[in-house]
Design goal:
The chain has one domain (3-73). Helix content is 76%, strand content 0%. The protein contains four helices and no strands. The chain has helices at 3-29, 32-46, 50-55, 62-83. Helix 1 runs parallel beside helix 4. The longest helix is centred in the first third of the chain and has 27 residues, at 3-29. The chain is elongated, with a radius of gyration of 15 Å. The mean pLDDT is 84.
């Protein structure tokens, strides 16, 4: 196997683990109603510690999961901004 490909795969997995950690931390900070609203969508990422969640994801799917998590976090920000626009800081 090409060493460049191996290094690329090794770099992507820690990014995925970081994104799963962020998603889990955000989930913990949400109110109960917001937690319930996103739980179904976020379920695969909330089951266990981040490294264990990532361990179950095949390497070839890491890019897809990184994209999914970033889209989910963006979607949540939009939903929260619409629900209470005065409570979020202004975008720069």
């Amino acid at each position: 196997m090409d060493s460049t490909q191996v290094l690329s795969n090794l770099a992507r997995m820690p990014r995925l683990e970081l994104m799963v950690s962020v998603l889990q931390a955000v989930h913990k900070q949400l109110g109960e109603s917001d937690q319930k609203r996103v739980e179904k969508r976020w379920e695969p990422y909330l089951e266990g510690r981040p490294h264990l969640v990532c361990f179950k994801i095949p390497t070839r799917e890491t890019k897809d999961h990184l994209l999914t998590i970033s889209q989910e976090l963006d979607r949540l920000e939009t939903e929260l901004a619409e629900a209470a626009p005065e409570s979020l800081p202004l975008s720069t």
